[in-house]
Amino acid sequence: MSIESPPGAISDPATWVEQHGDALFRYALMKMRDTSQAEDMVQETFLAALKARNKFAGQSSEKTWLIGILKHKIIDHFRKHKREQTSDDIETLTEQLDQQFNQSGHWNVSLSRWQNPDQAHENEAFWKTFSSCIAHLPDHLADLFILREIKGLTTEEICKLLDISTTNNMWVMLSRARMRLRSCLDSRWFNHDNQEVR
Amino acid sequence: MLSCKEVGELLSQGLDRKLSFREQLGLKIHLVVCKTCNCYEKQLQFVARSARNLMRPNKPGQGIPPLSDEAETRINSNIKQQLDEEQQIKPE
Fold first, then answer.
1. Cα torsion at B61, B62, B67, B70 (round to 10°)?
2. N or C: which end of chain A has fewer CB within 10 A?
3. What is the pLDDT of residues A98-144, one digit of tens each?
């Protein structure tokens, strides 16, 4: 039995937290980097959605609609608190990534193998490093990379949420994000003492 | 033959869409001879696996924890309170 409602209809608000709470919280935590602030954002999102639920047009799934509200709340929050941007801009990133290849498209850098990478998943510090690498991506790429992993969001909905014009653009952006994260993990995790957290 | 840069792009897109037969063949030929791209492929797959485990961990202690029970209860009771207030303003 599924409590997910069909597209176009809004489900019982009493089931929202159970259905969407974890996905919204994880997205919020990745952006806010603070548990209680992320929880507040999730709560504000649900309460705002409650007020606006009659206006839900059903053009997207309920989850996408909620994430859209959350995304705006987070942007407002940062605007109000004028938090400094720590993320790189996309031009700088593209330049950096291109420097990994020479004129004819061959690797300029040598890659060294990672020993038993999956063991890192058992280490809490790894997740801190990985999150921090994601947070340093240009905002758009970070959002895309995170939203891509939320179950129940279609490619089309993600493109719409992030104003990405074509799925082809989305694939290219994802490729840049992964390439950057690979080199971030390489320098900050696998070729380090594994203790660095930030 | 595909360049390493093109291979890198295709390896990533292979995680998001089904590659054409031509693309798959191009990748295969390149990967037979290119050690660096082989290494890149494995590391890229690890990044993708990590993303999945970050947002949808299947074991406690991995990735981002879910909303805590306390937060869940608190948010649910606030939702309920707002619903009750709604009822009081415009009783059916």
1. 0
2. N
3. 999 999 999 999 899 999 999 999 999 999 999 999 999 998 899 99
